[in-house]
Write a structure and sequence with these properties.
The complex is a heterotrimer of chains A (306), B (334) and C (250). Chain A is an all-alpha fold. Helices cover 75% and strands 2% of the residues of chain A. In chain B, strand 1 and strand 2 form a beta hairpin. The longest helix of chain B is centred in the C-terminal third of the chain and has 27 residues. Classes of the chains: A mainly alpha (306), B mainly alpha (334), C alpha/beta (250). Chains B and C meet through helix 7, helix 8, helix 9 and helix 10 of B and helix 2 and helix 3 of C. Chain B: Keywords: Cell membrane, Membrane, Transmembrane, Transmembrane helix.
C-alpha cells in the first residue's frame, strides 16, 4: 500500500466529512437556536443540487448554477420557515418530525413533477478539472480538493459570523435564552427565518457541490440527512464545533473503513469471506462509532448546556 | 346487548368495535364478490395495523418517539425470508457450533422473529434510552439505518435485491396459502395484540409507562426506576412490530431492504398519528385510512406521495386528535 | 442513642468554581422536624438533589436508615422510605389525583412489572389511595384531572404522594410556596401532626412556619452549614444574624 494511496483515502475522508459538515451545520444551528428537528434538511440539499444543475445547464456556467442552487435553497428555506416551520417551534419533537417528514414527501414529489424522473448530471467546471500531484506519485482531483477548501472556508466564515457579528451575537443569545432575546427587542421571527435560511443555503451549497460528483436525483438528500444526524449526535446537538469534529470523524471512519476493513479481514479469513464481512462491518462502522460515543458521552462530544 | 346498553358505552369503544368489525367484514364481502385483491388489501391493513400497535405502545403510551421501528419490522421479515430460504434449499443457517437449518412453519418463524427482534431491540433500546428527546429520535433512526445497510451488504440474503419466499410458511392447522385463512391469522394476531396492549396499559406496568411519558421525576420519586420500564416497553413494542414484519414478508412472498427503510419507519408512525396518538385503536384506524387512500388516490394519479404529504401536514398542524379524535372526541383521562 | 434516619457526611458538590455544597454534615433523627434555611443561592436545592439522588456528589456520603446510599438511584432511595415533595409541583399531568396516588402506592405493592391485572381494579389499593387523599382533604377531588386542580390543591396532593409511599422520612422542598396565610396555617398544623410518623427535613422560606415547626434548624450559606441547633439558639446566633437573618428579618 503506497503513501499516495493512503493520502488519497485520507483526503477522500476529509472531503466527505466537509460535505457532511455543510449539512450538519445547518441542522445543528436550527436545533440550537430554535429547538427544531428538521428532517426536510435533506430536501434542501436536493433542491440545491437540482437548481445548480438546471441553471448550469441553461446558462452554461457551473458558477452561476452553484450560486443559483445556494439562493434557491435559501429561498425555499425562508419560504417553508414562514409557511410551516414557525408553527412548529412550540410543538413537541414528534410533531416536528412528522411535519418535516411531510415536507420531504411534498418536496420530492414536486421536484419529480417539475424536473422529471430522469436524473440530471452536472459537469465539473473546467477551472477545477484535472488533478493535483500527490507526494509518492499519483494525483488527487482538483475538484475534491476545492470542496475541502470550500468547506473549511465555510466553517471559518460560520465561526466568524457566530463569534464576531451582531447576527451571531443574537444567535448565541437565542441559544441560551429564547425569552430573554425577545424581551431585548430583537425581532425574533426575522432572526429565526434568517437562521433557517442560512442553514438551508448551506445545505443547498453542499447539494450543488456534490451534484458534480454523483447523479442528481430525487431522494439523494436522504442518506446524507441521516449521516448528518449521526454527525450531530456524535458532536453534540446544537454545537457547531461538534458538527465540524463529528463530520470529519464520520467522513474518515466511513471512507477508511470501506477501504481498509475488507483488507484487514483478509489477514484473518479467506478472501471471499473477508470481503463480505469487511464490507458489512464497514457499512455499519459509523453507527458503531456513534454507539461508542453515546455509551461514553450520552450528550455527544461537545454537549450544549451541560 | 340492548340499544340502551350500547348507548351507555363510551363513544370510543363503539368506534373501535365498528372499526374491528369493518375490517373483518371487508374480506368476507370481497370473497363473496370474487374480488381477491381486496382480501389481500384487508390483510395488508391488518398487518400494518399490527406494526402500528407495536409502535403505539412505545410512542403513544410511553412517549418514546422511535423513528426506527422499520428495523424491527424488517428484521421480522428477514427472519421469515431466511428461515424459508434455508427450508426451501435444505441448507443450514449455520453449522458451527450447532447445525441450525431453516423452517417453513409459521409458529417457528414467529418465535424466532420474536427472539431475534427482542435481542436487537434490547441492544438498541439500552443505548438509545440513555438519551431522550431529539437524541432518541435521531439515534433510533440511525440504528435502523445501520441495519438497513447491513442487509444491503449481505449478498447471501439477496443484498439490495432482497429475498423471495417461494413457498409461504405453513400453519399447523389450516392452509396459509388460502388468502382468507391467512387474513384470519393476521386479523387474529392484530386482535390479540390490541387486547394485550389494553391489558398492559391498564396494568401497573402501563400506568408506570404512561407516567414515564408525562413526568419521569414523579415516577422515580414514587420509587419506580423509569429506565427498566421504558426498556421493557420498547422491547415489547419492537416484538409486536417484528411479528407484523414476518407476516408482511409472507403476505408478499418477498422481503427486501425496503422493509427496513426509514420511509417505512415514517409510515408506521403515520398510521399512529392519522389514527390519533394515545388511542388504543389508532393504528387500525390510521392503517385502514392510509391503505384506502393509497389505493384510491394511487389509482387516479402518480402523485400519491404529494397528497400524503399535504394530508399529514394538515393533520399535524390542525387536527391533533387524528381520525379517532374526530369520531370519538377527546381522550378520557383516568 | 437512637440511630439517625438520615446522615450526611461531608457532602460536597461543585459546579465549576462554584461550591454549591461544601462538606455538609447533617442528621435527621426519628420524630424530628429539621429545617434547612438559607438565603437564595445558598445551595439548598443542590443539597436536596444530592439527598434524593438526582445529583451525584463529588465527595461525602449519604446514609439513609443506616445504609450508605450514596450510589443508589432516586427510585431505590424512595423505595427505602424517602418521600419528597417538590418546590414546583411535579405530578403526572394527565392522570387524576387518584391516579397519581395509585401510582405512588404501586411501587410498594409489587412494583411496575405486573402486566395483566388493571391497577384500578384493585379495590383494596383504591381504598388505601382514597384514605391517603382524605388525609389531606382531597377525597372529593379524587377523579379530577390534576390539571384542573387549584395551585393549593396540587401542593396538598404533592404531600399526599409523599405520604403514599409510607415514608420513614420526608424531604419537603418549600411546601408552603404560594399557599397563602390560611393554607400555610393548615399545612403547618398538618406537618406538626405528621412528624411522629415520618421525620421531616424541611426547606422553607416562610420563617414563621419554620420557627413554629422546627425542632432543629441548620443554616446554609454558600454551601456550608454555618450554624445548627434549636430555634432559640439560631434566633440568637450572632453569626446567623450577620450572615442571613440580618438582611431578611430586620
Amino acid at each position: 500500500m503506497s503513501v499516495a494511496f493512503l493520502i488519497e483515502q485520507l483526503l477522500n475522508g476529509v472531503q466527505f466529512g466537509v460535505m457532511l459538515f455543510l449539512m450538519a451545520a445547518g441542522l445543528t444551528l436550527v436545533f440550537g437556536v430554535m429547538g427544531l428537528i428538521n428532517l426536510a434538511h435533506g430536501s434542501l440539499f436536493m433542491l440545491g443540487a437540482f437548481f445548480c444543475s438546471w441553471i448550469a445547464e441553461i446558462s452554461g456556467s457551473f458558477w452561476l448554477g452553484l450560486g443559483g442552487g445556494f439562493l434557491a435553497a435559501a429561498a425555499a428555506g425562508a419560504l417553508i420557515e414562514i409557511a410551516v416551520i414557525r408553527r412548529l417551534y412550540d410543538r413537541d419533537h414528534l410533531d416536528q418530525v412528522l411535519a418535516t417528514f411531510a415536507l420531504i414527501l411534498i418536496f420530492s414529489e414536486v421536484v419529480r413533477w417539475v424536473f422529471g424522473d430522469q436524473p440530471l448530471y452536472l459537469d465539473i467546471p473546467p477551472l477545477l478539472s484535472g488533478a493535483l500531484p500527490l507526494p509518492g506519485g499519483g494525483g488527487y482531483p482538483v475538484y475534491r480538493m476545492a470542496i475541502i477548501f470550500a468547506g473549511l472556508v465555510t466553517a471559518l466564515g460560520l465561526y466568524l459570523l457566530i463569534a464576531k457579528t451582531r447576527l451571531g451575537m443574537r444567535i448565541r443569545a437565542g441559544e441560551s435564552d429564547r425569552e430573554m432575546i425577545g424581551a431585548l427587542g430583537v425581532d425574533i421571527r426575522t432572526l429565526y427565518t434568517a437562521v433557517f435560511a442560512l442553514g438551508a443555503a448551506l445545505a443547498g451549497l453542499a447539494g450543488g457541490l456534490v451534484g458534480a460528483l454523483q447523479s442528481v436525483q430525487v431522494g439523494m438528500g436522504e442518506p446524507v440527512l441521516i449521516l448528518a444526524f449521526v454527525v450531530i449526535v456524535i458532536g453534540g446537538i446544537g454545537s457547531v464545533k461538534g458538527a465540524l469534529v463529528g463530520s470529519v470523524l464520520v467522513g474518515l471512519t466511513d471512507t477508511l473503513g470501506r477501504v481498509f476493513l475488507p483488507q484487514a479481514f483478509k489477514l484473518l479469513l479467506p478472501a471471499s469471506e473477508a470481503a463480505t464481512v469487511g464490507s458489512a462491518l464497514a457499512s455499519v462502522a459509523i453507527y458503531l462509532l456513534m454507539a461508542v460515543v453515546l455509551a461514553w458521552r450520552p450528550k455527544g462530544l461537545f454537549p450544549v448546556n451541560a | 346487548m340492548s340499544t340502551a346498553a350500547i348507548r351507555a358505552l363510551p363513544r370510543e369503544t363503539l368506534v373501535n368495535a365498528v372499526l374491528a368489525l369493518a375490517l373483518l367484514a371487508a374480506p368476507l364481502i370481497a370473497q363473496m364478490l370474487d374480488e381477491p385483491f381486496y382480501v389481500s388489501l384487508a390483510t395488508r391493513v391488518a398487518i400494518l395495523a399490527l406494526a402500528g400497535v407495536g409502535l403505539n405502545l412505545a410512542l403513544g403510551y410511553g412517549g418514546m418517539v422511535s423513528f426506527g421501528h422499520a428495523a424491527f419490522f424488517g428484521l421480522g421479515g428477514y427472519v421469515a425470508g431466511i428461515t424459508a430460504l434455508h427450508a426451501f434449499e435444505g441448507s443450514d443457517f449455520m453449522t458451527w457450533p450447532w447445525s441450525v437449518g431453516g423452517s417453513d412453519q409459521l409458529l417457528v418463524v414467529w418465535s424466532v422473529a420474536a427472539v431475534v427482534v427482542a435481542l436487537v431491540a434490547l441492544a438498541i433500546g439500552a443505548i438509545s434510552l440513555r438519551t431522550s428527546g431529539v437524541y432518541f429520535i435521531m439515534i433510533t433512526l440511525a440504528f435502523a439505518q445501520m441495519i438497513y445497510y447491513l442487509a444491503i451488504s449481505l449478498p447471501t440474503y439477496g443484498g439490495e435485491d432482497g429475498l423471495s419466499i417461494y413457498l409461504r410458511n405453513q400453519l399447523p392447522l389450516g392452509d396459509s396459502n388460502d388468502p382468507l385463512t391467512f387474513f384470519f391469522v393476521c386479523y387474529g394476531l392484530l386482535l390479540a395484540a390490541l387486547f394485550l396492549s389494553a391489558r398492559l396499559v391498564a396494568a401497573p406496568f402501563g400506568v408506570a409507562l404512561q407516567c414515564a411519558r408525562m413526568n419521569e421525576t414523579r415516577l422515580a420519586t414514587s420509587g419506580i426506576a423509569p429506565f427498566p420500564v421504558k426498556l421493557t416497553a420498547f422491547v415489547i413494542s419492537a416484538v409486536i412490530t417484528g411479528i407484523a414484519g414476518a407476516l408482511f414478508a409472507d403476505l408478499n412472498g418477498f422481503v427486501g431492504p425496503s422493509m427496513l427503510s426509514w420511509h417505512r419507519s415514517g409510515e408506521i408512525m403515520i398510521f399512529v398519528i392519522l389514527g390519533g396518538v394515545g388511542r388504543l385503536f389508532a393504528p387500525l384506524a390510521g392503517a385502514a385510512l392510509f391503505i384506502l387512500l393509497e389505493s384510491l388516490i394511487g389509482g387516479m394519479t402518480d402523485r400519491w406521495q404529494l397528497f400524503l404529504g399535504i394530508m399529514l401536514l394538515a393533520v399535524v398542524l390542525f387536527a391533533r386528535g387524528g381520525l379517532i379524535g374526530l369520531l370519538a372526541g377527546k381522550v378520557r383521562h383516568d | 442513642m437512637t440511630e439517625a434516619l438520615l446522615e450526611l457526611k461531608g457532602l460536597s458538590k461543585a459546579f465549576g468554581a462554584l461550591k454549591a455544597s461544601d462538606a455538609v454534615d447533617l442528621t435527621l433523627m426519628p420524630g424530628e422536624i429539621h429545617a434547612l434555611i438559607g438565603p437564595n443561592g445558598a445551595g439548598k436545592s443542590t443539597l436536596i438533589a444530592q439527598v434524593a439522588g438526582w445529583l451525584h456528589s463529588d465527595a461525602g456520603e449519604v446514609h439513609l436508615l443506616g445504609r450508605n446510599v450514596s450510589h443508589w438511584s432516586v427510585a431505590a432511595r424512595a423505595g427505602l422510605g424517602l418521600g419528597r415533595s417538590f418546590q414546583v409541583s411535579s405530578l403526572a399531568s394527565e392522570f387524576s389525583a387518584l391516579g397519581n396516588v395509585l401510582l405512588a402506592l404501586q411501587a410498594r405493592e409489587g412494583g411496575a412489572f405486573r402486566f395483566w391485572s388493571p391497577l384500578r381494579g384493585n379495590a383494596r389499593l383504591r381504598d388505601e389511595a382514597m384514605a391517603v387523599l382524605a388525609r389531606v382533604g382531597l377525597e372529593d377531588r379524587a377523579e379530577l384531572p390534576v390539571a384542573s386542580l387549584s395551585h393549593g390543591e396540587r401542593r396538598l396532593l404533592e404531600v399526599a404522594l409523599a405520604l403514599a409511599i409510607q415514608p420513614k422520612l420526608l424531604l419537603l422542598d418549600e411546601p408552603m410556596a404560594g399557599l397563602g396565610p390560611e393554607g400555610t396555617r393548615n399545612l403547618t398544623a398538618f406537618l406538626r401532626g405528621l412528624k411522629e410518623e415520618a421525620a421531616i427535613l424541611l426547606v422553607e422560606h416562610d420563617m414563621d412556619a419554620v420557627f413554629a415547626l422546627a425542632d432543629r434548624i441548620s443554616v446554609l450559606v454558600y454551601g456550608r452549614v454555618i450554624a445548627s441547633g434549636p430555634p432559640e439558639e439560631i434566633r440568637q446566633s450572632a453569626a446567623v444574624r450577620e450572615a442571613y437573618l440580618g438582611d431578611s428579618l430586620c
